[in-house]
Amino acid sequence: MLRCGLDFGVKLDRERARRVGRELRRHEAMSRATNLLRRRDVSAQELDARLARAQVDPTTRAEVVSRLDELGVVDDNRFASRRAQVLAERGAGDELIRHDLSGRGITVEGIEAALSQLEPESARAARIVERRGSSPKTVRYLAGKGFSEDAIESALEGAVAEDAPPVVF
User: What is the pTM of this model?
Assistant: First the structure.
């Protein structure tokens, strides 16, 4: 409480009481943020939105998010990389991953950096085609999962080439 100007023998006047109140609100917001981050990683924008829902004032929210960012607790690039990996493992294409990360406040550069760390989209699509078969239903599935037309075509061409009978001369 030294930050508020409190010490033994110091009179608690109106200004010091206000400072104590601000410090208590900042401490409560920091506590809420760290409790959330203890459970799961979130982007800076998501953290700000969660604090807003908890009715933390904008100045305090900005201060808390900024401080946690400085400390490396909130790291949008790390979050984007991990989130992209999880979505790719669940069978998502690049477009779905872009949409998800964009909605979480990740910059275009951060999204592209996260995507560059993943296995190529065509390889992920080929694995799904191998598992599900090359049918119109699989094509719709891949399109719904955010795979590009090029990745779908590439995966289907590979499946058709494997299914073709060997050429005998």
Answer: 0.77
